[in-house]
Write a structure and sequence with these properties.
This protein has five helices and ten strands; from the N terminus they run βαααβαβαβββββββ. With 234 residues, the protein is α/β, with parallel strands linked by helices. Strands 1, 2, 3, 4, 5, 6, 7, 8, 9 and 10 form a ten-stranded mixed β-sheet that branches. This is Papain-like cysteine peptidase superfamily. It comes from Arabidopsis thaliana x Arabidopsis arenosa.
Length: 234
C-alpha cells in the first residue's frame, strides 16, 4: 500500500477503519517509559543532572500501580508518583521492564529526590508553546499501516482510505517546525520501542466502521492529552 502524499490544505478525514486489538501492549509500562524520559530530559535541561540520566520505569510500575485501584497507569500518574513519592532510583539500580527478577524486601535502592508538579496544556497551541522550553508528553492516535510505512514522510494518519485503528499511544513532542506553512511536530512515540515521526498537527479525523456505523471516536486531533513535568530547583 502506498500512502498518499502530504497535502498541507487537507484538514479533516472521515475514515473507514477497523479497531485493531494488540494484546501485547502494556499501557502502564508505556506510560512509565514516556514519563521517565520526560523527567530525564527536564533534569538534564535544568542541569540537575550533568548528563542525560535514565531512571527506572519498572520501579514506577512496581510501586505506583497499587495506588490507582488496579487501573492502568497514565503518563500523568507516573509523573506525579515520581515527583511526590520521595524519589526514584536510576535505571541501573532496579530491574529492567520485562525482567522477572524481584528485588528482596530488604533491598533499598538509592532514590533520587524529585519535586515539582504536572502541567497539562489544554490545547495543541499551548503544547507547541511549551515545547520551546522542554519536551511535552502526549498521546498519538495511531493507524496501521501508516505508522509502519511513514518512514521519512509526514504522519497524517488516514486521509480517508481504509485503515486499522491501533489506538492511542504514549508519545513525546520534542520539536515543532513549519512545513509548507503548517505546524509539523517531531514526535517520539513509544510503539514497542521509541520511533520518531513527523506529525501533521493541524489534521483531524473521525472514525467509522466499514459498515458506516460510528465507532465512538469523535472528531479529534491526532495529538491529545498533553502533560509536562515542571521540576522544582529546590
Amino acid at each position: 500500500m502506498a500512502l498518499p502524499p502530504y497535502d498541507p490544505n487537507f484538514k479533516f478525514a472521515f475514515s473507514l477503519g477497523t479497531i485493531a486489538k494488540h494484546q501485547d501492549y502494556d499501557e502502564s509500562a508505556s506510560a512509565a517509559v514516556v514519563a521517565l524520559d520526560l523527567i530525564s530530559s527536564a533534569r538534564f535541561a535544568l542541569k540537575l543532572d550533568s548528563v542525560y540520566t535514565e531512571y527506572s520505569a519498572k520501579y514506577v510500575v512496581d510501586n505506583a500501580a497499587g495506588s490507582h485501584g488496579g487501573r492502568k497507569l497514565t503518563v500523568k500518574d507516573c509523573l506525579e508518583f515520581a515527583l511526590n513519592k520521595g524519589g526514584i532510583p536510576k535505571a541501573e539500580d532496579w530491574p529492567r521492564l520485562g525482567s522477572v527478577i524481584t528485588p528482596p524486601s530488604s533491598y533499598k535502592p538509592d532514590l533520587v529526590s524529585m519535586k515539582g508538579q504536572v502541567i497539562e496544556p489544554q490545547t495543541i497551541e499551548e503544547a507547541c508553546d511549551m515545547v520551546v522550553d522542554q519536551p511535552v508528553g502526549a498521546k498519538l492516535h495511531v493507524f496501521k499501516p501508516h505508522i509502519e510505512l511513514q518512514q521519512d514522510g509526514i504522519y497524517c494518519g488516514t486521509s480517508g482510505e481504509p485503515a486499522s485503528y491501533v489506538g492511542l499511544r504514549d508519545a513525546i513532542i520534542v520539536g515543532v517546525e513549519k512545513i509548507q506553512g503548517k505546524s509539523i511536530g517531531t514526535v517520539k512515540v513509544w510503539y514497542k520501542k521509541f520511533i520518531f515521526l513527523k506529525v501533521a498537527m493541524s489534521r483531524w479525523f473521525q472514525l467509522y466502521s466499514p459498515d458506516g456505523t460510528h465507532t465512538g471516536i469523535k472528531r479529534t486531533d491526532y495529538l491529545v492529552d498533553f502533560c509536562v513535568p515542571r521540576l522544582s530547583m529546590d
